[in-house]
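quick one before i forget lol
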Amino acid sequence: MDDLLWRLRGWLSGLAAGILLALGAVAAPSLFALLERAQAGLVAGRLFQIEAHVSLGLAVLLVLIERRLAAARAAEGRGSRFSLELGLMLGVVFCTVAGYFALQPMMAQARAGQGPYSFGQLHAVSSAFFGLKGLLWMVLAWRCTRPRPW
């Protein structure tokens, strides 16, 4: 069972990293190159909404998998219940919640001319969280490709 979870962890983290790369490097820039700015923003907003839910779901699933694997390692005396991979996954959860779920309502207010921050400022912070989340997913995928140590 642990072998299946080990492989699933690597596959899911690679999938999530690929989704972020495809969305951030291909889909969003293509939308703004082909559509009017307002239309591209609406479509990109919907894509980022889907991505946020997928990232959150995958990260929570991977946290559960990693906790199971870490508990097995700890029970055999080969490490603690906390791992760098678990820290990366928790970082993804934080970046998703802060970068999308916390900032999106503020961005909607800024578009309506309300709130203390401009849409551009909030968009920059949200983009930084997205970039950090992508980096975390890529590092996690890279680390999950190493051979199983047991």
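fyi The chain has one domain: 2-143.
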